[in-house]
Design a protein that fits this description.
Blueprint lengths: L9 H15 L8 H16 L5 H15 L6 H15 L9 H11 L5 H12 L2
Helix pairs in contact: 1-4, 2-3, 3-4, 3-6, 4-5, 5-6
């Protein structure tokens, strides 16, 4: 039986967003709490109904948080930060150069990268 991963809470995603805003600047706050809550629950569906691996789940966090645009600012930063926080919380080391992740988030925002492609990139960067 596959162990249930440690999913992120709403508060953890808010903390990731706050840290990103404090580090890189921007406006702190939530534009649409319902959209953010929905985005945070998508990864659980990926696990419980799709049986995705940790990288599929991390990609779901990044993809849906970025797509929801629920924060006033820093949505892409919060999205990738949440994915990395999820992986780290599930004992996956996430040390790498930031540019592939930055480029991936731009591609997602421009609808040029799918959630599955992001999962493959995360698997390539951090898989063992």
């Amino acid at each position: 039986m596959v162990r249930e991963p440690d999913f992120l809470t709403f508060e953890q995603v808010q903390a990731v967003h706050r840290e990103a805003i404090e580090k890189f600047g921007g406006t702190l706050g939530i534009r649409d709490q319902g959209a953010l809550e929905s985005a945070i629950f998508h990864p659980q569906n990926a696990f419980f109904y799709g049986r995705g691996d940790l990288f599929d789940i991390a990609a779901a966090y990044a993809y849906h948080i970025a797509e929801a645009q629920a924060f006033l600012d820093g949505n892409k930063r919060a999205a990738i930060g949440s994915a990395l926080t999820f992986l780290e919380g599930n004992r996956v080391a996430t040390d790498c150069e930031a540019s592939p992740l930055y480029n991936a988030m731009i591609a997602i925002a421009e609808k040029e990268m799918s959630k599955a492609e992001l999962a493959a990139l995360l698997r390539e960067l951090f898989g063992s």
